[in-house]
TrEMBL record:
It comes from the Bacteria. It comes from Vogesella fluminis. Its main location: membrane. Keywords: Membrane, Transmembrane, Transmembrane helix. The keyword Translocase does not apply. Residues 204-376 form the O-antigen ligase-related domain. The chain crosses the membrane at residues 12-39, 60-79, 91-108, 120-142, 162-182, 194-215, 221-239, 251-269, 363-384, 396-414, 420-438. This is O-antigen ligase-related domain-containing protein. It is a multi-pass membrane protein. It is found in: Membrane.
């Protein structure tokens, strides 16, 4: 009976993780979440596990403190009904996903079985996107040009038909990359095998995560992958003690060469890098041009050589600069909402504004600085759990937790990934890893 219960939970979780990024599945997502929570915590043992998890999970304590602050903000929120709806539809859903991740970690099965399930989720998702792109290539031929995003023979940019945007493709690829990179480092240096998969499959999954990110045209996604990779190397230098210096240096050199090759390839393929710095400089002076507010109403500024700015670099820097300015004007925040930045822009410029393309800015304006500090505290607690684990030796859960937090928090600065299913997926993995690390630590004591 217990094995059947575990099998049902694993099957439902597998489906949930796969449909998170598929458009039009919101209702199914919530149905699966409700069933999973009921199965995980609906019986006596589950409730005991839940109480134990709430008592010992310090990242969750930070999230609960943040929840109290977000509720307090209703007293002065500019749009209290909107904020209340966002708290229910966004924040509460994310907390429930944290609970699902923790419940999965508490399930009565070996850790290798749990990571094996997650491996199939990531690999299946990557292969589905490969087949999607391959079918487009077979129909239209190999891309005829490549200016950041591959352009097919029909004149259209290649787009995923599985996920709604290139940001979501890059996000899934980054999650996959972090998962497999952590396993690869742990396996090569410490011969610790936690994910039940052969080395060729592991390397294939890493390669697919990089290539799919490149095909998506998400430049910030590639930067995120690169920074995650460098963070992994830094962690090795910081915590790895047992490997001989020569072997360690050779491994680092090989990884750096791979990184340099990928970075050079991305620079050559994406012509936008040539105008990045000058475009970002103009964007930082957000009050001098308003094309970032509405490009249909105001023209984009020109560079010194008369060429148009790199729109992405210009707009993202303008969003960051303007968002920081608005947050400083209202340090206690305007209330948790995906529209916090948009309300500020509309109040000043009128018309229909766009979101800031930065989760950090959205949190800063909506949560205020106290809320942002509580969010960062929760992330830091998960980060410190992983780093404490790494002090006792490099292994997959420790590396994964640290790289997950570093990658997500860094990506939040330049992408609005702290919303919708992307926030839910992060919280699910955060709940899983924090609970795994606490359980493993308690067993060692």
């Amino acid at each position: 009976m217990q094995n059947r219960h575990v099998h049902i939970v694993n099957s439902l979780l597998f489906v949930l993780l796969l449909i998170f990024s598929v458009p039009g599945t919101i209702a199914l997502r919530y149905i699966l979440m409700a069933i999973l929570l009921l199965l995980m915590f609906g019986n006596k043992d589950g409730r005991a596990d839940f109480r134990s998890m709430v008592k010992e999970n310090r990242p969750l304590h930070g999230l609960l403190a943040l929840t109290a602050w977000l509720l307090l903000q209703l007293l002065w929120a500019g749009f209290p009904l909107e904020v209340l709806g966002e708290l229910k539809g966004q924040w509460l859903a994310a907390l429930l996903c944290f609970g699902i991740g923790a419940g999965f970690a508490l399930s009565k099965q070996e850790l290798t079985a749990k990571t094996g399930l997650l491996h199939y989720v990531f690999l299946f998702g990557l292969l589905a996107m490969v087949l999607d792109y391959a079918s487009q290539f077979l129909h239209w031929g190999w891309p005829v040009s490549w200016s950041g995003i591959p352009v097919l023979a029909n004149g259209l940019e290649i787009k995923s038909r599985i996920m709604a945007s290139k940001v979501q493709v890059a996000y899934f690829c980054t999650l996959s990359f972090v998962f497999y990179l952590s396993e690869l480092i742990s396996r090569l240096l410490y011969r610790k095998r936690l994910v039940p998969v052969t080395l060729p499959v592991l390397l294939l999954a890493l390669l697919l995560a990089v290539l799919l990110n490149a095909f998506s045209g998400a430049r910030n996604g590639f930067v995120g992958l690169s920074m995650t990779f460098l963070s992994g190397l830094f962690l090795l230098f910081l915590f790895e003690k047992k490997t001989a210096p020569v072997k360690k240096a050779a491994f680092m050199l090989a990884m750096l060469l791979c990184f340099a090759g990928g970075a050079l390839l991305n620079y050559k393929l994406d012509s936008r890098w040539d105008r990045f710095l000058s475009s970002a400089t103009i964007g930082a002076q957000f009050e001098e041009s308003q094309a970032w507010v509405d490009p249909h109403k105001w023209p984009y500024p020109l560079l010194a050589d008369g060429k148009p700015v790199d729109v992405s670099a210009y707009e993202r820097m303008a969003f960051l600069a303007a968002g920081l300015d608005y947050a400083l004007q209202n340090p206690l925040g305007s209330g948790f909402s995906r529209s916090a930045f948009m309300h500020e822009v509309e109040q000043r410029y009128g018309g229909k504004a766009r979101h800031s393309h930065s989760g950090m800015i959205e949190f800063m304006i909506g949560m205020g600085f106290p809320g942002l500090l509580l969010w960062l505290l929760a992330l830091f607690r998960l980060l410190s759990l992983g780093s404490d684990r790494l002090r006792h030796g490099i292994d997959m859960p420790g590396l994964w937790s640290v790289l997950l937090v570093l990658g997500f928090s860094g990506r939040m600065v330049v992408e609005n990934i702290s919303r919708d299913h992307m926030l839910m997926m992060f919280m699910l993995f955060a709940g899983f890893l924090s609970t795994v690390l606490y359980r493993e630590t308690s067993r060692d004591l």
